[in-house]
Design goal:
Helix content is 50%, strand content 17%. By secondary structure, the protein is α/β, with parallel strands linked by helices. The protein is globular, with a radius of gyration of 18 Å.
Length: 251
Amino acid sequence: MSGEPRVHLPGPAMIPLVRAAARLAEAGLGRFAIVGGVAVAARLGRAHRATADVDAVVDEDTPPAAIDVIRDLPGAEPDETHRHRVYLDGTKVDVIETATVTEPDLDDLDAQQILFVAGHRWALETATPMMLTAEENVHASVPIARPSALLAMKLHAMKGRGAVSDKRGSDAWDIYRLITDLDIGATAAEMRSALTPLRLAITAAVDEIFVQHAGRTRGWLRTGGAEMASVQVDDLVAAGTDLLARLRAEQ
């Protein structure tokens, strides 16, 4: 890939993550995209919170299976308790397989299932290349999920956490930063390429998390650092309302 946007992610914690992403790019996986915390950091242009693993979506219809390719790489240590998890040079890599999705495929799924199935596939299909760099001249040219697809996946993750999960705060923080730090008009416009059921599921989840239950969401944010805890209910409602207005204008 040449001419792609470059993002520098400083700090020692980013070195193994960028290095692992580079190894995925060189492994011959077929169609894949980086998602999760590394992708959020890339789109925001900064590592706004700690993350310790690399998440990737792959096309399950592309042989050989991407997870098998990764498990066979030098330095790979498969997690025998989790088929789609590998420790690559000590860095945890989680792989999510996706298949082609059409609207009829989603007819019998609820909103949470749609966010996962259609959101991850859409992330794969719309990812764009970026050059990630870290310290020690470590770099990776990889496809990165777009902000709109990251919103879908983060909303799914946040709504699916267990009752005592401490990760809802970081999910909410990712979503809030994606809404407030980026061009939200452009992000909403990206939704035009999403399947209608996915657009509706995203809209409903944003309304629930950032408007209807903003107080609960702020409570989760207060479990994080000072910057996360500084976000007020009014901030969440304003961000959610702005995004909702733009999403509905695109529907």
